[in-house]
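Hello Y.,

Per our agreement to keep a running log of every chain we model this quarter, I'm adding this entry. I've kept the format consistent with earlier entries: sequence first, then predicted structure.
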Amino acid sequence: MVLSRVSPVDARRLRTTSGIRVLAPSVAARIIAVWPNLRVQPLNSLRVRQAFSLAVDRQRMVEQIALGQATTARAPIASTSPYFDSSLPELKRNIEEANKLLDEAGLKRGSDGMRFSLRLLHVATFQDFAKTAEIIKENFADIGVRVNIVAGELTTTLDAIFKNWDFDLGVYSALIGPEPGVRWQAWFTTEGITRAYFNNATGYQNRRVDRLVKESLAIVDKAKRTAKYYEIQRAIMGDLPMVPLWEPKFISAYRVEFENAFMQPDEIYINFNRTWFRGR
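Predicted structure for the entry above:
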């Protein structure tokens, strides 16, 4: 039998279990991020988004949610992608600098120590999102931002974020790979502002990014296309229309008696047409 989406705690146990192979074959290059609605004040301020990025404890998310079986994120695409720009700096927590940025933005603390409140939406049944949201809530309290978590069922939450744009912050995972050209367009360009699921719900607009993405779609040479993707990543990280948090691994496991359990490179493309049981 093949198991897909093995939990981190089970994966850790199965790696030491005889007769089981554990792997993370996904090429989707997903990251989990917090996405701000840029139509909402003060989230339309770059200083505020920079403060958010400095406030989050990414390493804690990796350790407590993924049990160390993941890595922190530092780009809009995961480091597992061949198009990832490894020159991008690691994103580290700095509460002092985050508070300074919010002070400079004129967002002073009230008598209760809070500067403002935000609603953070996530799908309740996705444990990675729920646990990430709880850590964000605690982290943002350190910079005087009160986070009210709204955990809803799948369709209600997706409608609120992608169709109605009725959110302040959202925690979800963007699928960018294996070929990021098309997905850049959906997530990060003006053309992606469509009220459709898994598109540009934040309202992010940058004409340079629009141009770079359009240019990348016409480039056949992989090296030249990769260089264009690097430019896109740097531009997005300069604007922070989303705050990268951590890179989840979609862990799978199967018994060694089976062959060709993963003919496709990603768990979302799994088929068993050529899988066979060779016996013990």
